[in-house]
Design brief:
By secondary structure, the protein is α+β, with helices and mostly antiparallel strands. The chain has three domains: 6-123, Zinc finger FYVE domain-containing protein 21, C-terminal (PH-domain like, Roll), CATH 2.30.29.160; 145-307, 2-Layer Sandwich (Phosphorylase Kinase, domain 1), CATH 3.30.200.20; 312-547, Transferase(Phosphotransferase) domain 1 (Transferase(Phosphotransferase), domain 1, Orthogonal Bundle). The chain has helices at residues 93-110, 125-143, 145-163, 270-285, 332-351, 389-393, 419-443, 456-471, 473-481, 485-494, 505-512, 516-521, 528-547, and strands at 6-14, 23-30, 35-39, 43-47, 51-57, 60-62, 65-67, 73-80, 83-90, 198-199, 205-217, 221-229, 248-257, 294-299, 302-307, 312-313, 354-355, 364-367, 371-374, 381-382. Strands 4-3-2-1-9-8-5 form a seven-stranded antiparallel beta sheet, covered by helices on one side.
Length: 549
C-alpha cells in the first residue's frame, strides 16, 4: 500500500452530459476502491467494472510532438446496455502519473478492459513493472480458473481438517463433479486415436502418452516429456505418409497426482499447491529469454504444468559429475554467456519482487540458441501471492533451498525481516551456481564433498574453499588468460559470508560486463546478449536499490 490511502485532486472533467465542454471538478479515490468519485455540486461514482476501454495522453499534441503546456488526460469509456459513454479527466502534470497508476490498478483489479504495453508508457518504470507483473498473472488466472481455484479449495479444506478433533478425513470438496454439464468438471480421458489429444484449459492440445521421465520435482511431483500436438493436421506428402497425423513438439511437463481418497493431513496436496503457485509465478514473470517458458496448465485427475524443454541442466558440469564426461567441456565464451544468462534471469525476477530461493545448477537448463534458462519456482516467494507481508517472511528459512547453496545467515531466522534478505539469499546461491556449475568444470576444481547435514560453520568452510581456489595464482593466471577472471571475482563477491557486503545479481552483472571488449570477441554471442543484459541491469538498478530499503 502507498503512503497515501486516498487521492484527492482538482481536475477538469468532460462527460456525456457536458456538451463537449470541460468543467472544474474534484476527483477522489480510496486505495483499492472499486470506483472513482468525481464531484462538482453532486458527487458521482464511476465503477471500474463498467469500464470497457481507456486511454491516457501525456499532454496535448502539436503535430507529433507532445505539448507539455497542455494538461495530461485520462479517457475512460463505459457501456450501459448498448450505449457507450466517454468520460475525460484532465490533470495537473504533478498529479498525472499517480492518478494513472491508481486508475490502471483499479482497471486491472475490477475490469476486463485490456492493458496493452504501449498504453503503460506514462507510468514510471517501477509502476509499469508492477502493473505488467499483476496483469500477466491475472490473465493466467482468468484463463485457468479450474486450475487456480483448486489452490483456494485446498487451503480451505486444510483449515477445515485442522479444526477437526476426531472423525474420518475427507478429500477435497467440489473437485470431483459428477455432472458432465459442470464447468468445473475435471476431464482426463485417454486418447481415442493418434490424431486426437486432450485440450488443456488454456487451449494447448497434448498427447497424454509419457515419452520418458526427465526428473523429479519437489513436493511429490515428477517431470516427464510429453508431446504438444500442433495444427493443422498434416495431409500425406505425395501420397506418402499417414493421413490425419498431427505434427508435434516435445514439452517438459511437471505432474502432480490428485486422488480423491488421499488424506489431507498426509501432506499429499502439497505437490498440487506448489504446482499451482509455480504456474502463477511463471505467468507473472512473463516471457523472458532467461526464464523457462510456460506453455499451459491443466487440472485433471492429474495436474499438469506444460513448459518448454531444454537439453540438460548445468548439474552435468559440477565437480560431482565431472568425471562422467557425458558432455563436451564448456568453452570460455559459453561460460561467460551462461553466467550472463543466469544473472540476467535472476535480476529480472528480483525486479518483479519474486525470489527463487532454490538456485542451483540443477535449476538452470540449456535450451535452443545456446541459452541458459532458470527453472523450478516451487519454493519461490512473492508478495504477489502473499497478501500479508509477514507471512512471506516468517518461514523456517534454514529448511529452504538445497544443501550447498544456502548462505550462512540461513540459520539466523531473525535475519529475514525484509524482502532484501530474500534477494541476498538468491545472490549467494547464484554465486555458488557459477562456481560449481561453470568455473569448477573449466578449472578442474574438485569442490567439497556433499554432506547430508549442514550448519553455518560448514557453509563458511565451503565459502572459504572457493575463495581460496580462485585466489591461487596459477588459477588466476589461467582465468585471466581466458577472460574469466572478472567472472570469478564477481562470483566471489556474490558468496561473501556477510550479506551486507554481498554483490546483488544486478551488481555482479554490471561488474562482469564492464569487460565489453571480451564479450565483443565472443563469436557465440557477438557481445550482443551481454550488452543487452547490461542495459537491462541499468534499467532496473533503481528498483533493486529501492527493494533493499
Amino acid at each position: 500500500m502507498p503512503k497515501e490511502s486516498t487521492l484527492d485532486s482538482p481536475v477538469f472533467y468532460c462527460g456525456p452530459t457536458s456538451h463537449g465542454k470541460f468543467g472544474k471538478y474534484r476527483l477522489y479515490m480510496n486505495w483499492d476502491a472499486p470506483y472513482l468519485q468525481y464531484k462538482k455540486n453532486i458527487g458521482k461514482k464511476l465503477y471500474f467494472k463498467n469500464i470497457i476501454s481507456w486511454d491516457a495522453k501525456a499532454g496535448g499534441y502539436i503535430g507529433n510532438i507532445i505539448d507539455t503546456k497542455q494538461p495530461p488526460r485520462i479517457i475512460l469509456e463505459t457501456q450501459s446496455k448498448s450505449k457507450i459513454f466517454k468520460r475525460e479527466f484532465a490533470f495537473r502534470h504533478e498529479d498525472f502519473e499517480n492518478w494513472l497508476y491508481w486508475i490502471i490498478r483499479g482497471i486491472l483489479k475490477y475490469s476486463k478492459a485490456p492493458l496493452p504495453d504501449d498504453k503503460l508508457t506514462g507510468l514510471t518504470n517501477k509502476h509499469q513493472a508492477k502493473v505488467i507483473t499483476r496483469r500477466d498473472k491475472n490473465y493466467f488466472d482468468q484463463s485457468h480458473q479450474v486450475f487456480v481455484n483448486t489452490y483456494d479449495r485446498i487451503q480451505q479444506e486444510e483449515k477445515n481438517q485442522s479444526k477437526k478433533k476426531s472423525g474420518n478425513q475427507r478429500g477435497l470438496v467440489g473437485l470431483f463433479k459428477k455432472s458432465p454439464q459442470s464447468p468445473n468438471k475435471m476431464i482426463d480421458a485417454p486418447l481415442t486415436s493418434g490424431t486426437q489429444g486432450i485440450r488443456a484449459e488454456g487451449g494447448t492440445l497434448y498427447d497424454t502418452k509419457i515419452l520418458k521421465k526427465l526428473g523429479s520435482g519437489g513436493s511429490d511431483t515428477v517431470i516427464v516429456e510429453m508431446n504438444r500436438l500442433l495444427s493443422p493436421i498434416l495431409p500425406p506428402q505425395n501420397g506418402v505418409g499417414q493421413a490425419g497425423v498431427r505434427p508435434s513438439e516435445p514439452m517438459a511437463v511437471k505432474l502432480a497426482n490428485l486422488k480423491k481418497d488421499t488424506l489431507v493431513d498426509a501432506g499429499f496436496y502439497g505437490g498440487v499447491q506448489d504446482l499451482i503457485k509455480e504456474a502463477r509465478i511463471m505467468a507473472a514473470l512473463g516471457k523472458h529469454k532467461n526464464i523457462v517458458g510456460l506453455i499451459d496448465a491443466h487440472a485433471g485427475t492429474r495436474f499438469y504444468l506444460f513448459m518448454e524443454k531444454g537439453y540438460h541442466d548445468l548439474a552435468v558440469y559440477t565437480p560431482a559429475n565431472m568425471k562422467k564426461k557425458k558432455y563436451p567441456p564448456l568453452t570460455p565464451p559459453q561460460i561467460r554467456k551462461y553466467a550472463v544468462d543466469i544473472l540476467t534471469g535472476i535480476t529480472h525476477m528480483h525486479s518483479k519482487r519474486i525470489y527463487h530461493l532454490d538456485m542451483k545448477p540443477e535449476n538452470v537448463i540449456l535450451c535452443n540458441a545456446d541459452t541458459a534458462k532458470l527453472i523450478d519456482f516451487g519454493l519461490s516467494k512473492t508478495r504477489l501471492l502473499e497478501p500479508v507481508k509477514q507471512k512471506m517472511l516468517d518461514e523456517k528459512w534454514h529448511l529452504y533451498g538445497t544443501l550447498g547453496y544456502r548462505p550462512p545467515e540461513s540459520w539466523n531466522q531473525t535475519h529475514y525481516s525484509q524482502e532484501s534478505h530474500l534477494m541476498q539469499r538468491d545472490d549467494y546461491a547464484v554465486g555458488m551456481t557459477i562456481f560449481e556449475g561453470l568455473l569448477a568444470h573449466y578449472c578442474k576444481w574438485e569442490g567439497l564433498k556433499a554432506s547430508t547435514s549442514e550448519d553455518a560453520s560448514s557453509v563458511k568452510k565451503r565459502i572459504a574453499y572457493w575463495e581460496e581456489m580462485h585466489r591461487k595464482e596459477n588459477f588466476r593466471k589461467k582465468l585471466e588468460a581466458n577472460g574469466l577472471l572478472i567472472l570469478a571475482d564477481a562470483a566471489a563477491r556474490l558468496i561473501d559470508p556477510v550479506p551486507a557486503n554481498r554483490f546483488s545479481a544486478g551488481e555482479a552483472l554490471g561488474f562482469i560486463i564492464q569487460d565489453k571488449k571480451q564479450y565483443r570477441k565472443d563469436k557465440l554471442s557477438g557481445g550482443k546478449d551481454a550488452l543487452n543484459a547490461l542495459k537491462e541491469y541499468q534499467f532496473i538498478k533503481t528498483q533493486l536499490s529501492k527493494s533493499r530499503q
